[in-house]
Structures are given as C-alpha cells and as structure tokens.
Specification:
Layout: H1 4-20, H2 22-28, E1 32-33, E2 38-39, H3 43-46, E3 54-56, E4 60-62, E5 67-68, E6 91-93, E7 97-99, E8 104-105, E9 110-111, E10 115-117, E11 122-123, E12 131-134, E13 139-143, H4 144-151, H5 163-178
Helix pairs in contact: 1-2
C-alpha cells in the first residue's frame, strides 16, 4: 500500500514528465508512437484508460484537448443482464495526420494517411486516406488536395520569423483586409 506522499510524488512525476516530453510519456504508458510526432495535448488525460490500444504512425500532430476513447462506457446499462461485459476498440492514426483542438476519437476508429481532422469534431467511424473530416459526427468535407487548392493565395510564410516581426506583418496584412 502506497502512502499519501508516494501517491503525490508519483502524480507530480506524471505531470512534469508529460509536460517535458509528451511523446516519451505517451510511449511510457503504452501508446505506440511513430517518428516525428507532436503531442500538444495533455498526455496524462488524452489517451484514456487503455492507452495501449492507441497507435500513432509517423508525422502525427495531436492538438490540445484531444481525447482518444478506447471503450464504450454505455454498455454499463447492460451489466444488469451480463455483469462481466465491456466493449473496447483500438484506435489507429495513419501517417501525416493533423488532429485539431478538442477532437474526440471513438473506439475502433482508424484514420487513414494524409488526413486532417477539424477542431471540435467527434470521429465515430473510419476516415479514408487523403481527406479532411470535420463536424459532429465528423463527415467528409473535402480531399486534402482540395484543401491545398483552397489554401493557395491565403498562405503566409512567416513560420521562422521572430515573434515581433510576425505579429507586425500579420496585424498589417490581415487587419488591412478587414477594413
């Protein structure tokens, strides 16, 4: 039996290690994580109660507030009939995928390669490769190629600029369009 101080220390370790290197933390709890992945979400709560059922392939970004749900708690209502039942489903995220802020991914979902999942979406079924899905429930919005075409003429090349220079440019160019 662990003392209260041991639980506090373990909790603090989880918190700080997940902030320092969320990818390493995700791997330490059983998430399969490929190369060149970014986890911007709180890794201590992002992967749910069965993190070992989540697989992220290469070049995946997980934005903040994302939740991977690997079980269906709703089967609780059937435990009167069968007290031992549960439903679990693995989640697989393909290569080169961006998952937007506050997305929820349900059990058994596979997201194909080269996909974007829009902010606030709830993904309830498989997403084919090369598509942008968004909404509640998430549905096909367009292909990634159409998304790329829609972005042409709207893109800024300021990623490596110092913050003060980037801010001045964006305020001047974007706010000027509003007036």
């Amino acid at each position: 039996m662990f003392s209260k101080s041991a639980r506090v220390i373990r909790s603090a370790w989880r918190y700080f290690s997940s902030r320092r290197d969320p990818v390493a933390y995700a791997r330490s709890i059983g998430v399969r994580v490929g190369q060149d992945c970014r986890i911007l979400a709180d890794a201590t709560s992002c992967f749910g109660s069965e993190p070992y059922l989540v697989t992220l392939l290469d070049h995946v970004t997980i934005a903040s507030g994302v939740s991977f749900i690997t079980h269906d708690g709703g089967v609780w209502i059937f435990r009167v009939r069968d007290p031992e039942i549960d439903y679990f489903g693995p989640i697989v995220v393909g290569n080169n995928v961006f998952i937007g802020i506050r997305v929820i991914i349900m059990p058994g979902v596979t997201i194909g390669d080269n996909c974007v999942i829009g902010a606030g979406s709830i993904v309830t079924r498989n997403v084919p490769a090369g598509h942008v899905y968004a909404g509640v429930p998430a549905r096909n919005i367009k292909t990634v190629d159409q998304y790329w075409q829609d972005l042409q003429g709207k893109l800024s090349h300021v990623r490596s600029w110092p913050e003060h220079k980037k801010r001045a440019y964006l305020e001047q160019s974007l706010l000027k369009k509003l007036m």
